[in-house]
Protein backbone atom coordinates (compact mmCIF):
# COMPACT_ATOMS: atom_id res chain seq x y z
CA UNK A 1 0.00 0.00 0.00
CA UNK A 2 1.27 3.48 -0.82
CA UNK A 3 1.33 5.98 2.02
CA UNK A 4 2.26 9.67 1.83
CA UNK A 5 5.65 8.92 3.30
CA UNK A 6 6.20 6.15 0.73
CA UNK A 7 4.91 8.35 -2.12
CA UNK A 8 7.48 11.00 -1.40
CA UNK A 9 10.16 8.40 -0.97
CA UNK A 10 9.36 6.55 -4.21
CA UNK A 11 8.90 9.67 -6.34
CA UNK A 12 12.27 10.82 -5.25
CA UNK A 13 14.10 7.55 -5.23
CA UNK A 14 12.72 6.07 -8.43
CA UNK A 15 10.18 7.29 -10.82
CA UNK A 16 8.53 9.02 -9.33
CA UNK A 17 -18.78 15.90 -15.41
CA UNK A 18 -20.84 15.61 -14.05
CA UNK A 19 -23.65 18.24 -14.70
CA UNK A 20 -25.50 19.15 -11.56
CA UNK A 21 -28.34 21.59 -11.55
CA UNK A 22 -28.73 23.65 -8.39
CA UNK A 23 -30.24 26.94 -7.41
CA UNK A 24 -33.72 25.51 -7.13
CA UNK A 25 -35.17 27.77 -4.50
CA UNK A 26 -32.48 30.42 -4.56
CA UNK A 27 -34.46 33.20 -6.18
CA UNK A 28 -37.67 31.93 -4.65
CA UNK A 29 -35.88 31.90 -1.29
CA UNK A 30 -37.85 30.65 1.64
CA UNK A 31 -39.90 33.52 2.97
CA UNK A 32 -39.24 32.47 6.57
CA UNK A 33 -35.77 31.82 7.97
CA UNK A 34 -34.77 28.20 8.33
CA UNK A 35 -31.47 29.06 10.05
CA UNK A 36 -30.10 31.33 12.72
CA UNK A 37 -26.68 32.85 13.35
CA UNK A 38 -26.12 34.47 16.72
CA UNK A 39 -22.98 36.57 17.22
CA UNK A 40 -21.89 37.30 20.79
CA UNK A 41 -19.82 40.53 20.70
CA UNK A 42 -18.94 40.22 24.38
CA UNK A 43 -17.50 36.73 24.06
CA UNK A 44 -14.01 37.09 22.61
CA UNK A 45 -12.16 33.95 21.59
CA UNK A 46 -8.90 35.89 21.12
CA UNK A 47 -7.15 37.89 18.41
CA UNK A 48 -6.93 36.31 14.97
CA UNK A 49 -3.26 36.34 14.01
CA UNK A 50 -2.93 37.77 10.47
CA UNK A 51 -0.43 34.95 9.95
CA UNK A 52 -3.31 32.46 9.81
CA UNK A 53 -3.64 33.82 6.26
CA UNK A 54 -0.12 32.73 5.31
CA UNK A 55 1.26 30.99 2.24
CA UNK A 56 3.73 28.29 1.29
CA UNK A 57 6.18 28.18 -1.63
CA UNK A 58 8.56 25.37 -2.53
CA UNK A 59 11.07 24.61 -5.27
CA UNK A 60 8.59 22.11 -6.65
CA UNK A 61 7.15 21.89 -10.18
CA UNK A 62 5.99 25.29 -11.42
CA UNK A 63 5.79 27.07 -8.05
CA UNK A 64 9.04 29.04 -8.23
CA UNK A 65 10.10 28.92 -11.90
CA UNK A 66 7.21 30.15 -14.06
CA UNK A 67 4.99 30.80 -11.03
CA UNK A 68 6.87 33.38 -8.94
CA UNK A 69 10.09 33.87 -10.86
CA UNK A 70 10.03 34.79 -14.56
CA UNK A 71 13.45 36.49 -14.57
CA UNK A 72 14.30 40.17 -15.08
CA UNK A 73 14.66 39.79 -18.86
CA UNK A 74 11.25 38.17 -19.31
CA UNK A 75 8.51 39.67 -21.49
CA UNK A 76 6.12 38.77 -18.68
CA UNK A 77 5.51 41.93 -16.61
CA UNK A 78 7.78 41.64 -13.59
CA UNK A 79 9.43 43.46 -10.72
CA UNK A 80 13.10 42.56 -11.18
CA UNK A 81 12.19 39.01 -12.16
CA UNK A 82 9.19 38.53 -9.86
CA UNK A 83 5.83 38.04 -11.59
CA UNK A 84 4.07 41.39 -11.30
CA UNK A 85 0.42 40.19 -11.31
CA UNK A 86 1.18 37.79 -8.48
CA UNK A 87 2.84 40.42 -6.29
CA UNK A 88 0.01 42.87 -6.97
CA UNK A 89 -2.75 40.45 -6.05
CA UNK A 90 -0.94 39.25 -2.93
CA UNK A 91 -0.81 42.85 -1.77
CA UNK A 92 -4.59 43.15 -2.11
CA UNK A 93 -5.13 40.14 0.17
CA UNK A 94 -2.50 41.48 2.60
CA UNK A 95 -0.50 38.24 2.45
CA UNK A 96 1.16 38.29 5.88
CA UNK A 97 3.79 35.54 5.81
CA UNK A 98 5.31 33.19 3.22
CA UNK A 99 7.04 29.89 3.96
CA UNK A 100 10.05 28.84 1.81
CA UNK A 101 11.94 26.86 0.36
CA UNK A 102 9.87 23.75 1.21
CA UNK A 103 8.47 21.29 2.07
CA UNK A 104 10.55 18.24 1.41
CA UNK A 105 12.87 20.33 -0.75
CA UNK A 106 14.02 22.25 2.34
CA UNK A 107 15.79 19.25 3.86
CA UNK A 108 17.82 18.75 0.68
CA UNK A 109 18.68 22.42 0.16
CA UNK A 110 21.95 24.19 0.77
CA UNK A 111 21.05 27.87 1.23
CA UNK A 112 24.56 28.84 0.04
CA UNK A 113 23.68 27.58 -3.47
CA UNK A 114 21.08 30.33 -3.77
CA UNK A 115 23.15 33.41 -2.78
CA UNK A 116 25.96 35.36 -4.43
CA UNK A 117 26.08 36.39 -8.10
CA UNK A 118 23.24 34.66 -9.96
CA UNK A 119 25.46 33.59 -12.87
CA UNK A 120 27.87 31.81 -10.50
CA UNK A 121 25.29 29.73 -8.68
CA UNK A 122 25.49 25.96 -9.06
CA UNK A 123 22.90 23.70 -10.68
CA UNK A 124 21.72 20.86 -8.44
CA UNK A 125 19.38 17.91 -8.66
CA UNK A 126 15.96 18.97 -7.37
CA UNK A 127 14.50 16.87 -4.55
CA UNK A 128 11.40 16.25 -6.71
CA UNK A 129 13.32 14.71 -9.62
CA UNK A 130 11.52 11.47 -10.27
CA UNK A 131 8.05 12.90 -9.72
CA UNK A 132 8.42 14.97 -12.92
CA UNK A 133 7.09 14.00 -16.34
CA UNK A 134 8.60 14.27 -19.81
CA UNK A 135 6.74 17.59 -20.13
CA UNK A 136 8.44 19.09 -17.07
CA UNK A 137 10.96 21.77 -17.99
CA UNK A 138 14.60 21.24 -17.04
CA UNK A 139 14.56 23.84 -14.27
CA UNK A 140 11.89 21.83 -12.42
CA UNK A 141 14.23 18.85 -12.34
CA UNK A 142 17.66 20.45 -12.07
CA UNK A 143 17.62 23.43 -9.76
CA UNK A 144 19.32 26.44 -11.38
CA UNK A 145 19.32 28.43 -8.11
CA UNK A 146 18.36 31.63 -9.95
CA UNK A 147 15.87 32.14 -7.14
CA UNK A 148 17.29 31.98 -3.63
CA UNK A 149 17.18 33.78 -0.30
CA UNK A 150 17.70 37.30 -1.74
CA UNK A 151 15.00 36.91 -4.37
CA UNK A 152 12.61 35.35 -1.87
CA UNK A 153 13.10 38.08 0.72
CA UNK A 154 12.64 40.70 -2.01
CA UNK A 155 9.39 38.96 -3.02
CA UNK A 156 8.18 39.12 0.60
CA UNK A 157 9.19 42.75 1.07
CA UNK A 158 7.41 43.86 -2.14
CA UNK A 159 4.24 42.25 -0.85
CA UNK A 160 4.67 43.37 2.76
CA UNK A 161 4.86 39.76 4.00
CA UNK A 162 7.18 38.23 6.61
CA UNK A 163 9.57 35.55 5.32
CA UNK A 164 9.41 32.17 7.06
CA UNK A 165 12.45 30.04 6.19
CA UNK A 166 12.68 26.27 6.70
CA UNK A 167 16.16 25.04 7.65
CA UNK A 168 17.70 21.78 6.48
CA UNK A 169 17.97 19.35 9.40
CA UNK A 170 18.26 16.12 7.40
CA UNK A 171 21.35 16.88 5.34
CA UNK A 172 23.15 19.97 6.68
CA UNK A 173 24.88 20.44 10.04
CA UNK A 174 23.46 22.74 12.71
CA UNK A 175 26.23 25.24 12.01
CA UNK A 176 24.79 25.88 8.55
CA UNK A 177 21.47 26.81 10.12
CA UNK A 178 23.26 29.35 12.33
CA UNK A 179 25.13 30.66 9.28
CA UNK A 180 21.90 31.12 7.31
CA UNK A 181 20.54 33.13 10.23
CA UNK A 182 23.81 35.08 10.20
CA UNK A 183 23.53 35.73 6.46
CA UNK A 184 19.99 37.05 6.86
CA UNK A 185 20.17 38.90 10.14
CA UNK A 186 23.71 39.98 11.04
CA UNK A 187 24.07 43.80 11.07
CA UNK A 188 25.50 45.71 8.14
CA UNK A 189 29.28 45.37 7.94
CA UNK A 190 29.47 42.98 10.90
CA UNK A 191 30.37 39.64 9.30
CA UNK A 192 31.65 38.19 6.05
CA UNK A 193 28.16 36.89 5.39
CA UNK A 194 26.67 40.36 6.02
CA UNK A 195 29.12 41.66 3.40
CA UNK A 196 28.02 38.93 0.97
CA UNK A 197 24.40 40.00 1.55
CA UNK A 198 25.39 43.62 0.94
CA UNK A 199 27.01 42.67 -2.38
CA UNK A 200 23.60 41.38 -3.46
CA UNK A 201 22.14 44.83 -2.77
CA UNK A 202 20.97 44.43 0.83
CA UNK A 203 23.37 45.95 3.36
CA UNK A 204 20.50 46.15 5.84
CA UNK A 205 19.70 42.84 7.57
CA UNK A 206 16.65 40.95 6.41
CA UNK A 207 15.55 40.43 10.03
CA UNK A 208 13.92 37.08 9.35
CA UNK A 209 11.93 36.18 12.45
CA UNK A 210 10.26 32.86 11.55
CA UNK A 211 12.43 29.76 11.09
CA UNK A 212 11.32 26.19 10.66
CA UNK A 213 13.68 23.61 12.15
CA UNK A 214 13.27 21.00 9.41
CA UNK A 215 10.09 19.85 7.71
CA UNK A 216 8.09 16.66 8.18
CA UNK A 217 10.94 15.23 10.19
CA UNK A 218 8.91 12.03 10.62
CA UNK A 219 9.30 11.46 6.84
CA UNK A 220 11.25 13.27 4.11
CA UNK A 221 12.89 15.53 6.70
CA UNK A 222 15.06 12.79 8.21
CA UNK A 223 12.79 9.85 9.01
CA UNK A 224 13.27 10.48 12.74
CA UNK A 225 11.24 9.21 15.62
CA UNK A 226 9.63 12.00 17.63
CA UNK A 227 12.20 11.55 20.39
CA UNK A 228 15.17 11.56 17.99
CA UNK A 229 13.85 14.70 16.33
CA UNK A 230 13.38 16.43 19.70
CA UNK A 231 17.07 15.85 20.43
CA UNK A 232 17.98 17.29 17.01
CA UNK A 233 15.64 20.22 17.60
CA UNK A 234 17.38 21.06 20.89
CA UNK A 235 20.75 20.94 19.18
CA UNK A 236 19.76 22.96 16.10
CA UNK A 237 17.98 25.60 18.15
CA UNK A 238 20.60 26.01 20.89
CA UNK A 239 22.48 29.32 20.90
CA UNK A 240 21.33 30.56 17.53
CA UNK A 241 22.46 34.13 17.01
CA UNK A 242 19.60 36.58 17.66
CA UNK A 243 21.13 40.00 16.78
CA UNK A 244 18.73 41.64 19.21
CA UNK A 245 15.65 40.17 17.58
CA UNK A 246 14.18 37.03 19.14
CA UNK A 247 13.66 34.27 16.58
CA UNK A 248 10.36 32.41 16.38
CA UNK A 249 11.31 28.75 15.84
CA UNK A 250 8.81 26.28 14.46
CA UNK A 251 9.37 22.61 15.29
CA UNK A 252 8.38 19.95 12.81
CA UNK A 253 5.14 18.58 14.16
CA UNK A 254 2.61 15.87 13.53
CA UNK A 255 1.03 14.64 10.35
CA UNK A 256 -2.76 14.66 10.64
CA UNK A 257 -3.95 13.21 13.90
CA UNK A 258 -0.75 11.45 14.92
CA UNK A 259 -0.74 12.52 18.56
CA UNK A 260 2.08 10.14 19.45
CA UNK A 261 4.41 12.52 17.56
CA UNK A 262 3.25 15.52 19.57
CA UNK A 263 3.53 13.59 22.82
CA UNK A 264 6.88 11.96 22.03
CA UNK A 265 8.42 15.23 20.88
CA UNK A 266 7.30 17.29 23.88
CA UNK A 267 8.09 14.55 26.38
CA UNK A 268 11.69 14.52 25.16
CA UNK A 269 11.91 18.32 24.97
CA UNK A 270 10.85 18.82 28.60
CA UNK A 271 13.11 16.01 29.82
CA UNK A 272 15.68 18.78 30.19
CA UNK A 273 13.17 21.02 31.94
CA UNK A 274 10.16 23.09 30.94
CA UNK A 275 12.46 26.02 30.20
CA UNK A 276 13.25 24.30 26.88
CA UNK A 277 9.73 25.16 25.72
CA UNK A 278 10.77 28.84 25.64
CA UNK A 279 12.80 28.01 22.53
CA UNK A 280 9.73 26.89 20.60
CA UNK A 281 7.29 29.34 19.04
CA UNK A 282 5.17 26.75 17.28
CA UNK A 283 4.64 23.12 16.49
CA UNK A 284 3.87 22.53 12.80
CA UNK A 285 0.81 20.47 11.90
CA UNK A 286 0.24 19.25 8.33
CA UNK A 287 -3.08 18.06 7.01
CA UNK A 288 -3.96 17.30 3.41
CA UNK A 289 -7.50 16.18 2.58
CA UNK A 290 -6.82 13.48 0.02
CA UNK A 291 -8.81 10.33 0.79
CA UNK A 292 -12.09 10.41 -1.14
CA UNK A 293 -12.48 6.63 -1.19
CA UNK A 294 -15.42 6.76 1.25
CA UNK A 295 -13.58 4.56 3.70
CA UNK A 296 -12.62 1.89 1.14
CA UNK A 297 -8.85 2.33 1.18
CA UNK A 298 -6.03 4.08 2.96
CA UNK A 299 -3.76 3.84 -0.09
CA UNK A 300 -2.19 7.22 -0.93
CA UNK A 301 -2.65 6.78 -4.70
CA UNK A 302 -5.87 4.80 -4.90
CA UNK A 303 -7.69 6.88 -2.30
CA UNK A 304 -7.39 10.18 -4.16
CA UNK A 305 -10.23 11.81 -6.09
CA UNK A 306 -10.41 13.94 -9.20
CA UNK A 307 -10.02 17.70 -8.91
CA UNK A 308 -12.69 18.68 -11.43
CA UNK A 309 -14.82 15.59 -12.09
CA UNK A 310 -16.70 14.67 -8.95
CA UNK A 311 -20.20 13.94 -7.77
CA UNK A 312 -22.01 15.56 -4.81
CA UNK A 313 -20.86 12.75 -2.50
CA UNK A 314 -17.22 13.54 -3.38
CA UNK A 315 -18.01 17.15 -2.60
CA UNK A 316 -19.19 16.32 0.92
CA UNK A 317 -16.45 13.74 1.37
CA UNK A 318 -13.76 16.31 0.71
CA UNK A 319 -15.35 18.81 3.09
CA UNK A 320 -15.64 16.12 5.75
CA UNK A 321 -11.94 15.24 5.33
CA UNK A 322 -11.07 18.93 5.58
CA UNK A 323 -13.28 19.68 8.56
CA UNK A 324 -11.48 16.99 10.56
CA UNK A 325 -8.67 19.50 11.02
CA UNK A 326 -10.72 21.14 13.77
CA UNK A 327 -10.60 17.97 15.91
CA UNK A 328 -6.86 17.68 15.11
CA UNK A 329 -6.22 21.21 16.34
CA UNK A 330 -8.17 20.50 19.52
CA UNK A 331 -6.59 17.06 20.04
CA UNK A 332 -2.98 18.15 19.58
CA UNK A 333 -3.64 21.21 21.73
CA UNK A 334 -4.81 19.00 24.56
CA UNK A 335 -1.65 16.86 24.35
CA UNK A 336 0.50 20.01 24.19
CA UNK A 337 -1.17 21.19 27.40
CA UNK A 338 0.04 18.08 29.24
CA UNK A 339 3.65 19.28 28.86
CA UNK A 340 3.08 23.00 28.45
CA UNK A 341 0.16 23.95 30.68
CA UNK A 342 0.65 27.66 29.98
CA UNK A 343 0.48 26.94 26.25
CA UNK A 344 3.60 28.89 25.39
CA UNK A 345 3.91 26.74 22.23
CA UNK A 346 1.24 27.38 19.59
CA UNK A 347 0.15 25.37 16.57
CA UNK A 348 1.46 26.39 13.14
CA UNK A 349 -0.56 24.63 10.42
CA UNK A 350 2.06 25.28 7.78
CA UNK A 351 0.68 22.91 5.12
CA UNK A 352 -3.03 22.45 4.49
CA UNK A 353 -5.37 21.89 1.56
CA UNK A 354 -6.88 19.21 -0.69
CA UNK A 355 -4.63 16.90 -2.70
CA UNK A 356 -6.11 15.22 -5.79
CA UNK A 357 -4.75 12.70 -8.26
CA UNK A 358 -2.81 14.09 -11.25
CA UNK A 359 -4.67 15.06 -14.41
CA UNK A 360 -6.11 18.56 -14.00
CA UNK A 361 -2.88 20.55 -14.44
CA UNK A 362 -3.36 23.88 -16.23
CA UNK A 363 0.22 23.48 -17.44
CA UNK A 364 1.10 19.87 -18.31
CA UNK A 365 4.41 18.95 -16.70
CA UNK A 366 3.80 20.96 -13.52
CA UNK A 367 3.89 18.21 -10.91
CA UNK A 368 1.39 18.35 -8.03
CA UNK A 369 -0.52 21.10 -9.85
CA UNK A 370 -4.29 20.85 -9.71
CA UNK A 371 -7.26 22.91 -10.84
CA UNK A 372 -9.16 24.47 -7.93
CA UNK A 373 -12.94 24.52 -8.35
CA UNK A 374 -15.78 26.01 -6.33
CA UNK A 375 -15.39 22.98 -4.04
CA UNK A 376 -11.88 24.12 -3.11
CA UNK A 377 -13.07 27.66 -2.44
CA UNK A 378 -15.67 26.28 -0.03
CA UNK A 379 -13.05 23.96 1.49
CA UNK A 380 -10.58 26.81 1.97
CA UNK A 381 -13.20 29.13 3.46
CA UNK A 382 -14.29 26.41 5.86
CA UNK A 383 -10.66 25.84 6.90
CA UNK A 384 -9.97 29.55 7.45
CA UNK A 385 -13.15 29.73 9.57
CA UNK A 386 -11.85 26.85 11.68
CA UNK A 387 -8.55 28.68 12.29
CA UNK A 388 -10.47 31.88 13.11
CA UNK A 389 -12.46 29.96 15.71
CA UNK A 390 -9.24 28.83 17.47
CA UNK A 391 -7.15 32.01 17.61
CA UNK A 392 -5.54 31.12 20.93
CA UNK A 393 -4.25 27.84 19.48
CA UNK A 394 -3.34 28.56 15.84
CA UNK A 395 -0.63 31.20 15.53
CA UNK A 396 0.08 30.70 11.83
CA UNK A 397 -1.22 28.68 8.88
CA UNK A 398 0.15 28.34 5.35
CA UNK A 399 -2.01 27.18 2.48
CA UNK A 400 -0.23 24.57 0.35
CA UNK A 401 0.89 25.88 -2.06
CA UNK A 402 0.69 29.44 -3.38
CA UNK A 403 0.84 29.02 -7.14
CA UNK A 404 0.85 26.23 -9.76
CA UNK A 405 0.54 23.52 -7.13
CA UNK A 406 -2.00 21.89 -4.79
CA UNK A 407 -4.57 24.28 -3.29
CA UNK A 408 -3.22 27.25 -5.22
CA UNK A 409 -4.54 30.79 -5.07
CA UNK A 410 -3.01 31.40 -8.50
CA UNK A 411 -2.15 29.61 -11.72
CA UNK A 412 0.38 31.04 -14.13
CA UNK A 413 2.23 29.98 -17.24
CA UNK A 414 4.45 32.33 -19.24
CA UNK A 415 2.33 35.47 -19.76
CA UNK A 416 -0.93 33.89 -18.53
CA UNK A 417 -2.15 34.37 -14.99
CA UNK A 418 -5.40 33.68 -13.18
CA UNK A 419 -6.70 34.07 -9.64
CA UNK A 420 -8.29 30.72 -8.78
CA UNK A 421 -11.44 30.09 -6.78
CA UNK A 422 -9.18 29.67 -3.72
CA UNK A 423 -7.61 33.09 -4.28
CA UNK A 424 -11.11 34.54 -4.56
CA UNK A 425 -12.08 32.95 -1.22
CA UNK A 426 -9.00 34.48 0.45
CA UNK A 427 -10.19 37.91 -0.78
CA UNK A 428 -13.40 37.56 1.21
CA UNK A 429 -11.49 36.68 4.40
CA UNK A 430 -8.84 39.42 4.44
CA UNK A 431 -10.79 41.67 6.87
CA UNK A 432 -10.58 38.97 9.57
CA UNK A 433 -6.82 39.52 9.92
CA UNK A 434 -6.05 40.96 13.34
CA UNK A 435 -9.72 41.06 14.40
CA UNK A 436 -11.13 39.78 17.68
CA UNK A 437 -12.72 36.41 17.04
CA UNK A 438 -16.24 36.28 18.49
CA UNK A 439 -18.17 33.27 19.65
CA UNK A 440 -20.88 32.70 17.07
CA UNK A 441 -23.62 30.09 17.17
CA UNK A 442 -24.85 28.62 13.89
CA UNK A 443 -28.13 26.68 13.75
CA UNK A 444 -29.20 25.32 10.37
CA UNK A 445 -30.68 22.13 8.92
CA UNK A 446 -27.98 19.60 8.08
CA UNK A 447 -27.17 18.61 4.52
CA UNK A 448 -28.57 15.08 4.19
CA UNK A 449 -27.38 12.85 1.39
CA UNK A 450 -26.84 9.22 0.50
CA UNK A 451 -23.29 7.85 0.82
CA UNK A 452 -23.05 4.45 -0.84
CA UNK A 453 -26.73 3.78 -0.14
CA UNK A 454 -26.33 4.74 3.51
CA UNK A 455 -27.73 8.00 4.92
CA UNK A 456 -25.06 10.62 5.68
CA UNK A 457 -25.16 14.20 6.94
CA UNK A 458 -22.88 17.21 6.96
CA UNK A 459 -23.35 20.41 8.94
CA UNK A 460 -25.73 23.04 7.56
CA UNK A 461 -24.08 26.45 7.95
CA UNK A 462 -20.82 27.32 9.67
CA UNK A 463 -18.36 30.18 9.73
CA UNK A 464 -16.65 32.76 11.92
CA UNK A 465 -17.05 36.35 13.06
CA UNK A 466 -14.48 38.97 14.05
CA UNK A 467 -14.64 42.51 15.30
CA UNK A 468 -12.39 45.54 14.74
CA UNK A 469 -13.79 48.62 16.46
CA UNK A 470 -17.35 48.81 15.18
CA UNK A 471 -16.67 46.74 12.08
CA UNK A 472 -17.82 43.18 12.33
CA UNK A 473 -16.87 40.67 9.68
CA UNK A 474 -18.92 37.50 9.34
CA UNK A 475 -18.00 34.71 6.93
CA UNK A 476 -20.37 31.83 6.29
CA UNK A 477 -20.16 28.63 4.29
CA UNK A 478 -23.26 26.88 2.99
CA UNK A 479 -21.97 23.42 1.99
CA UNK A 480 -25.30 22.14 0.64
CA UNK A 481 -24.94 21.39 -3.07
CA UNK A 482 -28.53 22.32 -3.95
CA UNK A 483 -30.34 24.11 -1.14
CA UNK A 484 -30.09 27.71 -0.07
CA UNK A 485 -30.49 28.69 3.57
CA UNK A 486 -32.20 31.81 4.80
CA UNK A 487 -30.72 32.88 8.09
CA UNK A 488 -31.69 35.40 10.68
CA UNK A 489 -28.45 36.97 11.93
CA UNK A 490 -28.68 38.32 15.43
CA UNK A 491 -25.93 40.33 17.07
CA UNK A 492 -26.56 40.23 20.77
CA UNK A 493 -26.96 43.75 22.20
CA UNK A 494 -26.33 45.65 18.97
CA UNK A 495 -28.08 47.07 15.91
CA UNK A 496 -26.29 47.21 12.60
CA UNK A 497 -26.13 47.85 8.87
CA UNK A 498 -24.61 45.29 6.52
CA UNK A 499 -23.38 44.57 3.02
CA UNK A 500 -22.56 41.15 1.60
CA UNK A 501 -20.40 39.55 -1.06
CA UNK A 502 -20.85 35.97 -2.21
CA UNK A 503 -18.71 33.45 -4.04
CA UNK A 504 -20.77 30.77 -5.76
CA UNK A 505 -21.85 29.35 -9.10
CA UNK A 506 -24.70 27.27 -10.50
CA UNK A 507 -22.20 24.49 -11.27
CA UNK A 508 -20.31 23.03 -8.32
CA UNK A 509 -17.40 22.21 -10.66
CA UNK A 510 -16.96 25.79 -11.82
CA UNK A 511 -13.39 27.09 -11.96
CA UNK A 512 -11.35 29.97 -13.31
CA UNK A 513 -9.01 29.24 -16.19
CA UNK A 514 -6.49 31.22 -18.25
CA UNK A 515 -9.18 31.69 -20.91
CA UNK A 516 -12.17 32.21 -18.57
CA UNK A 517 -10.74 34.03 -15.60
CA UNK A 518 -13.89 35.42 -13.97
CA UNK A 519 -16.19 32.41 -13.82
CA UNK A 520 -16.15 32.35 -10.00
CA UNK A 521 -15.62 35.78 -8.50
CA UNK A 522 -17.16 37.55 -5.49
CA UNK A 523 -20.45 39.28 -6.30
CA UNK A 524 -22.42 41.73 -4.18
CA UNK A 525 -25.49 40.14 -2.57
CA UNK A 526 -28.64 41.69 -1.06
CA UNK A 527 -29.06 41.88 2.71
CA UNK A 528 -32.31 42.86 4.41
CA UNK A 529 -32.93 44.15 7.90
CA UNK A 530 -36.23 42.95 9.38
CA UNK A 531 -37.45 42.99 12.97
CA UNK A 532 -34.06 44.26 14.22
CA UNK A 533 -32.22 41.33 12.64
CA UNK A 534 -30.22 40.90 9.47
CA UNK A 535 -31.74 38.41 7.05
CA UNK A 536 -29.68 36.81 4.38
CA UNK A 537 -30.13 34.02 1.88
CA UNK A 538 -27.01 31.87 1.62
CA UNK A 539 -27.02 30.22 -1.82
CA UNK A 540 -26.11 26.55 -2.18
CA UNK A 541 -22.41 25.76 -2.38
CA UNK A 542 -21.37 29.24 -1.37
CA UNK A 543 -18.98 31.33 0.67
CA UNK A 544 -20.40 34.64 1.90
CA UNK A 545 -18.76 37.56 3.67
CA UNK A 546 -20.94 40.08 5.49
CA UNK A 547 -19.45 43.41 6.47
CA UNK A 548 -21.50 44.67 9.37
CA UNK A 549 -21.23 48.12 10.90
CA UNK A 550 -22.40 48.19 14.49
CA UNK A 551 -24.42 51.26 15.50
O1 LIG B 1 3.30 20.29 -0.47
C1 LIG B 1 3.88 19.16 -1.05
C2 LIG B 1 4.67 18.31 -0.05
O2 LIG B 1 3.78 17.78 0.89
C3 LIG B 1 5.67 19.04 0.80
O3 LIG B 1 6.89 19.19 0.15
C4 LIG B 1 5.82 18.16 2.00
O4 LIG B 1 6.17 18.86 3.16
C5 LIG B 1 4.46 17.49 2.10
O5 LIG B 1 4.58 16.12 2.24
Notes on the structure:
It is globular, with a radius of gyration of 23 Å. The model is unreliable at 11-30 (pLDDT under 50). By secondary structure, the chain is of the alpha/beta class. The chain contains eleven helices and 26 strands. The chain is 24% helix and 26% strand. Helix 10 (374-388) runs parallel beside helix 11.
**Main structural class:** alpha/beta
Average pLDDT taken over every residue: 94
Instruction: Report Rg.
Output: 23 Å
Measured between the Cα atoms of the first and last residue, the distance is 59 Å
Q: What's the total count of β strands?
A: 26
List the strand order in the largest sheet: 23-22-26-20-19-16-1-21-25-24
Strand proportion: 25-35%
Largest sheet: 10 strands, mixed
Bound molecules: alpha-L-arabinofuranose
Count of helices? 11
Anisotropy-based shape: globular
Task: Give the low-pLDDT segments.
Answer: 11-30
Q: Percent helix among the residues?
A: 10-25%
Amino acid sequence: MTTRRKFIHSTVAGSAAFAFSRYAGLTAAASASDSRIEILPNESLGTISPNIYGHFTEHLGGVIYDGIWVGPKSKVPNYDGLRRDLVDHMKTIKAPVIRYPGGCFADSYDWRDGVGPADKRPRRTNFWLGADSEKSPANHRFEPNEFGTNEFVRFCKLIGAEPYLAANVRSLPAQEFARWVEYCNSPEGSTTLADLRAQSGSPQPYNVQYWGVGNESWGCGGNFTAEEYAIEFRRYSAWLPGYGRPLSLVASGPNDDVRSWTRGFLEEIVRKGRGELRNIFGLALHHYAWNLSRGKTGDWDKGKGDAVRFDPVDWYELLREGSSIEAMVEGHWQVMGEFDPEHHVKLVVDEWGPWYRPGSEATPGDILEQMPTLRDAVFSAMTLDIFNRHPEKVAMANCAQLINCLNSLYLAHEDRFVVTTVGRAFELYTPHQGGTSLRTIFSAPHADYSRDEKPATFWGLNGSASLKGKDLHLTVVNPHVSQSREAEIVIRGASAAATAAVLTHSDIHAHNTFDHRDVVIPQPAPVTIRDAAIHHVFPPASVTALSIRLA
